[in-house]
Amino acid sequence: xxxxxxxxxxxxxxxxxxxxxxxxxxxxxxxxxxxxxxxxxxxxxxxxxxxxxxxxxxxxxxxxxxxxxxxxxxxxxxxxxxxxxxxxxxxxxxxxxxxxxxxxxxxxxxxxxxxxxxxxxxxxxxxxxxxxxxxxxxxxxxxxxxxxxxxxxxxxxxxxxxxxxxxxxxxxxxxxxxxxxxxxxxxxxxxxxxxxxxxxxxxxxxxxxxxxxxxxxxxxxxxxxxxxxxxxxxxxxxxxxxxxxxxxxxxxxxxxxxxxxxxxxxxxxxxxxxxxxxxxxxxxxxxxxxxxxxxxxxxxxxxxxxxxxxxxxxxxxxxxxxxxxxxxxxxxxxxxxxxxxxxxxxxxxxxxxxxxxxxxxxxxxxxxxxxxxxxxxxxxxxxxxxxxxxxxxxxxxxxxxxxxxxx
Length: 407
Description:
Layout: H1 2-28, E1 54-55, E2 58-59, H2 65-68, H3 96-100, H4 114-118, H5 136-140, H6 152-156, H7 174-185, H8 197-208, H9 211-222, E3 231-235, E4 238-240, E5 242-245, E6 248-251, E7 253-254, E8 257-258, E9 261-263, E10 269-272, H10 275-280, E11 288-292, H11 296-306, E12 310-312, E13 315-317, H12 325-328, H13 348-360, H14 368-375, H15 380-392
Parallel strand pairs: 3-11
Antiparallel strand pairs: 1-2, 4-9, 5-6, 7-8, 10-11, 12-13
Helix pairs in contact: 1-14, 7-8, 7-9, 11-15, 13-14, 13-15
């Protein structure tokens, strides 16, 4: 019966999707009004509750700072510093012998030193069996950038599972992947928080990639099969105390030991299961744990599977959004042959960032227009709940079969 209920929600969602699309066409694509009625506010302009909170069309009042790796809102004029280019040279401020010492990880026959691990122009591969043979764009980056190109597998990992500060491209449809790179190229996708540096790096990489390299990367990541879980989601009123390094939450230390726990306070805290494995060794088999507020998974399930829709007195009362399965499939793992991304099991930090970016208008690709309407009424608590639930779902559940055309 529950499955039947999901199917009914999917049908209702499809109908709603057509309605929303028509609403978007009628509302946002008609000629601009020359004047507004007294007291009327333009729906396209966020309205600040405190002067100075809206800049460049972005309303920072409710920014999910935890998702971007910051503890306070950006100040006027704040911008990201460019990331240092890859290098195959040891760091002068660290012991040379320690940097050159060979390292291993459990289950791998490979052996690398820290200089090799850190060189994102020559991406290391602990587990070649996880994926196809790395192609030049995956291992070395755009040819046009020469020795400073970053291989896709450096940040996103050779198996495409990604990390909280970036995207998990494994399993994305080829057409969707290509469209996102084109959006980066043409200024249609950027970060709502101007301090996040790796988004600017991604934009530069997208501009440097040839069409053949984009297709090569898209086909590589699309061919990788997902595992069941990469992220462990834990509901808890408390989370470890953290500090942010490179837009990534890490366990705060006092005297070399974890600094204890603190109230989760309306955040998601996403940490590596083993900091040494994830950060020092870049082990793509070492996963993540996400601490989420109590009750957020159940609330997220309601929003994700029904859009918050209720049936009252035999009548449908529409919720504040559209069921995610309408486009992303009943299991949130995509629809066979469809140009939409699977979202199940992905980083909640990444998911929340993308939803907030879409709300703030910094994702403007063709399909982002419909998403803008879907997320328009979501509160910060809703974003947390949706991200918590979606992240908890298995990535390897079957995709939804595409509808069969009938005459």
